[in-house]
Design brief:
This protein has helices at residues 10-14, 17-48, 51-59, 65-71, 75-78, 81-101, 106-117, 120-134, 138-169, 171-192, 209-222, 224-244, 247-253, 260-282, 285-290, 292-300, 312-325, 330-339, 345-373, 376-404, 408-411. It is mainly α and 417 residues long. The chain folds into two domains: 1-196, Growth Hormone, Chain: A; 208-417, MFS general substrate transporter like domains (Growth Hormone, Chain: A), CATH 1.20.1250.
């Protein structure tokens, strides 16, 4: 385990064996998720010719996570993480193989993906709990920074390889490739990850999983510090996801060349990678926490000029700056981990993941609906305005978190490159 020391570097974090396994397999799974979304959407559209069903297939993995986070979250702390993660990754491999090899009805395809999505928050909670255990203090922040960078890179890779793979070998062979990636992640976790006891083993809890999940979620939400940090990590992401979902029709409406929508979509994760790299390596812990609100505002501010017709490079640059503003989340990682009880840390991270993924699925619906009655640029600008308003509304609560969650001497420990 990395010591809680101010001398924390990315190299030291990656030298931690348990984190290295979690980091590598999680990145592989995120890339597989993205490829599966693309391939399944193409498969459904090819069989039905329905844009609506294709869009549902693309996003079917988001909304069902509400059920998993609300009803099954306690499993992240009750079960041993190695068998839990291995089992879920193996189940994802089986689902992808079934989609590829069986001629299932469309409803059955969507139901399978929705079912496996229900346990996604449980795995996310278990992975982040383990990361917080082996990377205490600022090491956890840098670990989360690496995970965010890897997630953005994996999404870029999945989107790029998804289009290429589907065009080259067809959607069913692309789905087989995702099944292989999930299976490889399951095998790596089983062979390389140690098997620590569940976090809740010391509590002696005997309530049912459903009862414990509901009770802990209520306690977490009732804590003002936890609640404001959850909202800060849920709402801006939902608003920007709504704007992101409009970029392809926005490019067409503004008369940009064919393929410009893909360039605009890529600008956001490129900015996220850059922002997380700079925030993780160059900013001190206390500075990251002080910059949460300004960076959250930066996450939305560059969307406002998109109400006008701008040159394509300018638009892409503004979206990259928006992506860089996502680094505001780095300043919330350590306070959030410290604010929740260790025995419920897995469920807390699962609840966080549930809200992010669910609202990320709801944002496109909300702002897509607005784009039906407004100009697309106006809808995108409204998403940026909502993000700015969130930063202003949560400013006081986040300032109280910064004053109370960390002792002053702890918050001032410097990060090191």
């Amino acid at each position: 385990m990395i010591a809680n020391s101010p001398r924390v570097t990315y190299r030291r974090i990656l030298a931690e064996p348990r984190f290295r396994v979690l980091f590598g397999t999680r990145s592989l799974v995120i890339a597989a998720d993205t490829l599966r979304m693309v391939a399944l959407s193409v498969l459904v559209y090819g069989r039905t010719g329905s844009p609506l069903l294709a869009a549902i297939a693309f996003g079917i993995g988001f909304l069902p996570q509400v059920a998993g986070g609300a009803l099954l979250g306690a499993l992240a702390d009750r079960l041993r993480p190695r068998p839990l993660i291995t089992t879920v990754y193996a189940a994802e491999a089986a689902v992808a193989a079934a989609l590829a090899l069986l001629d299932l009805p469309i409803a059955a395809c969507l139901a399978l993906v929705a079912a496996i999505a229900c346990v996604t928050p449980v795995v996310s909670g278990a992975v982040n709990r383990l990361a917080a255990e082996v990377l205490p203090g600022d090491g956890f922040v840098l670990g989360r920074s690496l995970m965010m960078i890897a997630a953005s890179a994996a999404q870029l890779l999945g989107l790029a390889s998804g289009g290429i793979a589907v065009a080259a070998v067809g959607e069913r062979h692309a789905l087989l490739a995702t099944a292989g990636a999930y299976a490889a992640a399951a095998v790596l976790v089983r062979l390389l990850l140690d098997d620590p006891p569940p976090a809740a083993a010391k509590t002696g809890a005997r309530r049912s999983v459903l009862g414990e999940s509901r009770a802990v979620n209520r306690r977490l939400w009732a804590d003002p510090a936890v609640r404001v940090m959850l909202l800060a990590q849920w709402l801006p992401v939902a608003f920007v996801a709504g704007a992101e979902s409009l970029l392809i029709p926005y490019a067409q409406a503004r008369g940009h060349p064919e393929g410009a929508g893909a360039l605009l979509l890529a600008a956001l994760p490129v900015g996220m990678i850059a922002g997380n790299a700079v925030g993780g390596r160059m900013l001190r812990p206390a500075t990251r926490e002080r910059l949460v609100v300004p960076l959250m505002a930066l996450f939305g501010l560059p969307l406002l000029p998109l109400v006008a017709t701008l040159p394509l490079p300018v638009t892409a640059g503004l979206l990259a700056v928006t992506g860089a503003g996502f680094a505001y989340e780095l300043g919330l990682q350590r306070p959030f981990a410290d604010a929740v009880p260790p025995a419920a840390r897995g469920q807390a991270f699962g609840l966080l993941s549930t809200g992010v993924m669910t609202l990320q699925g709801a944002g496109p619906v909300l702002f897509g609906g607005l784009a039906e009655v407004l100009d697309i640029g106006q809808a995108i600008a409204l998403a940026g305005t909502a993000t700015l308003a969130t930063a202003l509304c949560l400013r006081g609560g986040l300032a109280r978190v910064r004053r109370t969650v960390h002792p002053p001497q702890d918050a001032e420990r410097p990060a090191r490159r």
